[in-house]
Protein backbone atom coordinates (compact mmCIF):
# COMPACT_ATOMS: atom_id res chain seq x y z
CA UNK A 1 0.00 0.00 0.00
CA UNK A 2 1.36 3.39 -1.01
CA UNK A 3 1.64 6.20 1.51
CA UNK A 4 -0.51 9.26 0.80
CA UNK A 5 1.18 12.36 -0.54
CA UNK A 6 1.80 15.41 1.62
CA UNK A 7 -0.77 17.39 -0.37
CA UNK A 8 -3.48 14.80 0.28
CA UNK A 9 -2.65 14.73 3.99
CA UNK A 10 -2.80 18.53 4.21
CA UNK A 11 -6.14 18.61 2.39
CA UNK A 12 -7.45 16.07 4.88
CA UNK A 13 -6.22 18.09 7.85
CA UNK A 14 -7.77 21.39 6.75
CA UNK A 15 -11.35 20.56 7.88
CA UNK A 16 -10.08 19.02 11.11
CA UNK A 17 -8.02 22.08 11.97
CA UNK A 18 -10.75 24.49 10.89
CA UNK A 19 -13.36 22.93 13.13
CA UNK A 20 -11.19 22.02 16.14
CA UNK A 21 -8.43 24.57 16.55
CA UNK A 22 -10.18 27.79 15.54
CA UNK A 23 -12.79 27.81 18.31
CA UNK A 24 -11.32 30.89 19.98
CA UNK A 25 -11.75 32.82 16.71
CA UNK A 26 -15.39 31.94 16.06
CA UNK A 27 -16.88 31.28 19.49
CA UNK A 28 -19.32 34.17 19.28
CA UNK A 29 -23.09 34.43 19.21
CA UNK A 30 -23.03 37.59 17.15
CA UNK A 31 -22.80 38.22 14.21
CA UNK A 32 -25.70 36.23 12.87
CA UNK A 33 -25.26 34.76 9.38
CA UNK A 34 -28.31 33.42 7.54
CA UNK A 35 -30.18 33.49 10.84
CA UNK A 36 -27.61 31.29 12.58
CA UNK A 37 -25.09 32.26 15.24
CA UNK A 38 -21.64 32.50 13.69
CA UNK A 39 -20.27 29.46 15.51
CA UNK A 40 -23.08 27.23 14.24
CA UNK A 41 -22.71 28.64 10.73
CA UNK A 42 -18.94 27.94 10.87
CA UNK A 43 -19.42 24.30 11.86
CA UNK A 44 -22.14 23.68 9.29
CA UNK A 45 -20.06 25.27 6.56
CA UNK A 46 -17.15 22.95 7.37
CA UNK A 47 -19.50 19.97 7.33
CA UNK A 48 -20.29 20.96 3.74
CA UNK A 49 -16.69 21.81 2.79
CA UNK A 50 -15.13 18.61 4.16
CA UNK A 51 -16.25 16.44 1.21
CA UNK A 52 -14.68 18.97 -1.16
CA UNK A 53 -11.36 18.69 0.65
CA UNK A 54 -11.57 14.89 0.62
CA UNK A 55 -12.41 14.96 -3.11
CA UNK A 56 -9.32 17.10 -3.70
CA UNK A 57 -7.17 14.66 -1.75
CA UNK A 58 -8.62 11.78 -3.77
CA UNK A 59 -7.89 13.59 -7.03
CA UNK A 60 -4.29 14.08 -5.92
CA UNK A 61 -3.90 10.39 -5.13
CA UNK A 62 -5.86 8.84 -8.00
CA UNK A 63 -3.21 9.34 -10.76
CA UNK A 64 -0.46 7.93 -8.55
CA UNK A 65 -2.57 4.88 -7.70
CA UNK A 66 -3.46 4.32 -11.36
CA UNK A 67 0.21 4.52 -12.41
CA UNK A 68 1.22 2.16 -9.59
CA UNK A 69 -1.31 -0.45 -10.77
CA UNK A 70 -0.03 -0.25 -14.34
CA UNK A 71 3.55 -0.79 -13.19
CA UNK A 72 2.51 -3.87 -11.25
CA UNK A 73 0.67 -5.28 -14.27
CA UNK A 74 -2.86 -4.86 -12.95
CA UNK A 75 -5.88 -3.94 -15.02
CA UNK A 76 -6.99 -0.31 -15.03
Write the layout of secondary structure elements.
Blueprint: H1 6-20, H2 23-26, E1 32-33, E2 36-37, H3 38-71
Structure description:
The protein is mostly helical and 76 residues long. It has one domain. It has helices at residues 6-20, 23-26, 38-71, and strands spanning 32-33, 36-37. It has a two-stranded antiparallel ribbon. A hairpin with a 2-residue loop joins strand 1 and strand 2. Helix 1 (6-20) runs antiparallel to helix 3 (38-71). The radius of gyration is 18 Å and the shape is elongated. The model has no long low-confidence stretch (mean pLDDT 84).
In a nutshell, what does this entry contain?
This protein has helices spanning 6-20, 23-26, 38-71; strands spanning 32-33, 36-37. By secondary structure, it is mainly α.
Largest sheet: 2 strands, antiparallel
Query: Averaging pLDDT over every residue, what do you get?
Result: 84
Number of helical segments with 4 or more residues: 3
Question: Which structural class should the secondary elements be placed in?
Answer: mainly alpha
Main-sheet strand order equals 1-2
Give the H and E element order: HHEEH
Note poorly predicted spans: none
Report strand %.
5-15%
Calculate Rg over CA atoms. Answer: 18 Å
Assign an overall shape.
Answer: elongated
Number of domains: 1
Q: Helical proportion?
A: 55-70%
End-to-end gap: 17 Å
Give me the count of strands: 2
Amino acid sequence: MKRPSLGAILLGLIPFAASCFTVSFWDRIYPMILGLPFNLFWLISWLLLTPLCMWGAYRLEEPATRNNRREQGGAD
